[in-house]
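Workshop exercise sheet. Pairs work together: one partner reads the sequence aloud, the other fills in the structure field after running the prediction. Swap roles for the next sheet.
Pair: D.N. / O.F.
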Amino acid sequence: MRGIALAQPARTSVVHQDRRYVGSKETLGYILFDVAGGFNISDYGERYIYDVLKIDLSLLAIVNGINSVWDIVNDTFIGTIVDKTRTRWGKFKPYLMITAVPGTLLGCLGWLMPYMFNQDPMNMAKFGMYLALAMIGEGLGTFRGISVGGYLAAITPHPVDRTRLIMLTQLLSGFFGEQIPGILMGVFIDLINNKVVKWSMRGTYVKMGLFTTLVSGTTALFFLFISRERVVQSVKTPSIMQTLKSVANNKPLMIAIISECLSNFKIGVNKTNYYIDVLGAASIKNIVGIPGGLTSSLSFLYVPWARRVFSTKLLWIVGGSFSEFLMALVFFFGSIGGKGEKGWYRDIWKMIPILTIQEFLANGVLGIKRIIPTEIFNESLDYCEWKNGYRTEGVTTVAKGFANKILGSIMNTIKPLWLKALGYDMTRAFGKQDESTKYLLFAFCTIVPFLTSLIGVIPKAFYPLTGKKREAMYEELLARRSAKNRELSNAGTDKPEQQGSECGQ
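Structure field:
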């Protein structure tokens, strides 16, 4: 663990200057854009497939396998296309605009499928349509994912301004985007299962899915209309070989890739399965998350301070591992009483306080967990520009995800199969799985993910952009960008205000 510096340089520096390039209106737009990205009921997406759409787990494994391979294939050429793009609107905005509408329509079509097909798990027409929608959606999602990652790095040139944007968006979107739809869906599921309301599970899923998809798509367009790219892109685009070489020689990026790749060995199941099939209530997720809502909000507020005091690598290690460590402790307490009905993991009144404490403590570092990995990626883009004189956001995004997608594709393919191996029976009612299956579901959302994720921590100790090296890089990089802007202004050709490439306001 050599090289984990606890603190950054104490002096006021160009890196820590409070520079603002993005105004209030654009900041609000970016917040709404990020909210839109998480405004969904994805936590219950697996339950939608199992309980409503009903696709056989073996067929689902085939879909996941094919789509994962397609994801890896399309990444390569889409990343190259994005990096060679130069338009008057910028490098990334065109792709975000053209994918927004078809992506929204495809999402709506996916939620309407239960009204188009019967509930036969082996229905081949249903399987074929689900596979087609998944593959088309994956292609559009690749364009969007690459562009979103690059856009954040392009709308402001300064790391402090960028961290400010990430902090504000994660602070607000984490609740409004991710939490509210999930809270409502969990309550609806429990009301239906306990026959408090006479709604159909199918109708509830479809209505919530359509609502969140339409809101998400519409809100995203608002930001795209009011925002612009400010980081100057080099006029000359690098060749494919130059791009690949720059990625291979990008040490910060390689460390991030190796870490994420190894972290994909993490094996587990969604905690939602444990709440529903073992404790018997989906809304437990909402209950245990109430105290954690306070700490999650506060966790984003101290991130700028933590960035000044502690090294990036230390924050990266702690933020990425703390939650899994706490879940290992949950397993220890839940295993009191052994397997079966006497085990604490089966007792809702014992597990609620344990899970509440876990959520409370885990959310205390949520800000670090959300912001630091994003900053690691953005710093690797800046490192490429500093070292080579050009930026390769598209291919860098692809490289960042390539290795871990290979492992991820394997894990996504076998996930339905290991769920089946645990004894999970999708024909049984909520909470009616075998006792052995219930214990395994508990283990696979607590101790197993912790143990299998530890290997991903090791590469983080060797992250190089800390202290004086990081400071020197940004001092030189910001000076270069300012000089480039002056050069463009003096030339009177491609004015930054018109081209969306301005470094300042």
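Discussion prompt: The chain has 20 helices and no strands. What would you look at next?
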